[in-house]
Specification:
Layout lengths: L1 E5 L4 H13 L3 E6 L19 E5 L5 H11 L3 E4 L6 H6 L2 H22 L4 H6 L1 E7 L24 H20 L3 E6 L1 E3 L8 H10 L4 E4 L5 E6 H14 L5 E4 L4 E3 H15 L14 E4 L14 H7 L7 H14 L1 H9 L12
Parallel strand pairs: 1-2, 1-4, 2-3, 4-5, 5-6, 6-10, 7-9, 8-12
Antiparallel strand pairs: 9-11
Helix pairs in contact: 1-8, 2-4, 4-6, 7-9, 9-11
């Protein structure tokens, strides 16, 4: 099967492509606009594979998408391209509306137009997997509540609202046009190659530079943490075994308060960083509490029993093993994140067209 992956140079997208190339026989076409969060350095491991191709394009550019579908003729689409940082959505929601809503609409229409030209057997085999977030569900009221696939949507941030809207578009295209769609909603991802603005890499890199570790409010917000390689396995499982029209929640089964996540990172770094910054006894001393962000949800947690029961998927990594792997990866791959911080990862990009 040839799979078109949108947003494949991003954090989750690059992990998915590495998995597809390393662990399956699939051919992969990576479609990415290469905005600030797209980093081809994350794909160096697979870029020489004959089963991997890269195409630089905007998912809002219908003509470019039509050319890509005609040229590559994929048997499936895994749609991950999205603006995803909540703080950025508060500062500038326009980009989120354009990419997450208009972009998803344009992808759906381009994919549907291509799908309509296929033979009956190829149409039956085709899949469009839309990758979304648990943030569409909003804030959990009780300490024992969990997000289920039938939980009502109640997004709090512009990011979550645009992802909720894109989910609704995908479901509408499935119902109205009988287009073969699937949707996943995942919990917070972490792992190698995550852009440094996100919580876990931000804390690791700030700690290495003896900078403050800023935590919103009192750090009591709870998230369910999913190791990115576990997520990649789940997405492929849904694509190949999921029921058309269904939604699958993907969670790491690791609920943690933000403050506890940061303290765990500090504890690991105390153990493994031999040369601490001058004058620093413990990395936890760098923790600083800052004003909470607007509309900050208190707790997310996913009920992943459906994907476990129906598709036999469960995460391999628990939080202790996954976070240790993550800290060590950043310590061992300084060139990757230094190129992100100094901006040099963006200077060598060459658009390959379609």
């Amino acid at each position: 099967m040839k799979i078109l992956v949108t947003g494949g140079a991003g954090f989750i997208g690059s992990a998915l492509i590495r998995y597809l190339v390393d662990e399956t026989e699939c051919e992969v076409v990576n479609l990415d606009k290469l905005t600030y969060a797209g980093n081809l350095d994350s794909l160096q491991k697979v870029e020489a594979s004959p089963r991997y191709q890269f195409a630089q394009a905007d998912i809002c550019d219908r003509e470019a998408l039509d050319r890509l579908f005609a040229k590559h003729q994929p048997g499936a689409v895994m749609h991950l391209a999205a603006e995803s940082h909540v703080d950025r959505s508060i500062d500038g929601p326009g980009d989120f509306i354009q990419t997450n809503l208009v972009g998803t609409y344009t992808m759906l229409e381009a994919a549907r137009a291509y799908w309509s030209t296929l033979s009956d057997s190829a149409q039956a085999a085709f899949r469009f997997l839309h990758v979304s977030t648990d943030e569409v569900y909003g804030d959990l009221a009780g300490c024992d509540d969990l997000f289920r696939e039938d939980t009502s949507y109640d997004p709090s941030s512009p990011y979550a609202a645009t992802k909720a809207g894109s989910d609704h578009l995908v479901r509408a295209w499935g119902r109205t046009f009988r287009f073969p769609v699937l949707i996943t909603n995942c919990s917070n991802n972490y792992g190698p190659c995550q852009f440094p603005e996100k919580l876990i890499p931000h804390m690791i890199l700030n700690a290495l530079q003896a900078k403050p570790l800023p935590i919103y409010g009192d750090g009591s917000q709870v998230r369910d943490w999913l190791y990115v390689d576990d997520h990649a396995r789940a997405l492929y499982r849904v694509l190949t075994r999921g029921l058309i029209g269904d939604t699958y929640n993907i969670g790491g089964l690791n609920e943690k308060k933000n403050i506890d996540v940061v303290k765990t990172i500090c504890g690991i770094m105390d153990q493994v960083v031999a040369d601490k910054p001058t004058g620093l006894n413990h990395f936890e001393d760098l923790i600083t509490f800052v004003k909470d962000r607007p509309g900050h949800d208190e707790r997310y947690a996913i009920d992943a029993s459906k994907i476990n029961a129906d598709l036999d998927w469960a995460p391999v990594e628990d939080f202790d093993s996954g976070i240790r792997k993550t800290v060590l990866w950043y310590l061992e791959n300084r060139e990757w994140w230094q190129r992100v911080i100094d901006g040099s990862y963006r200077l060598e990009r060459i658009g390959t067209g379609s």
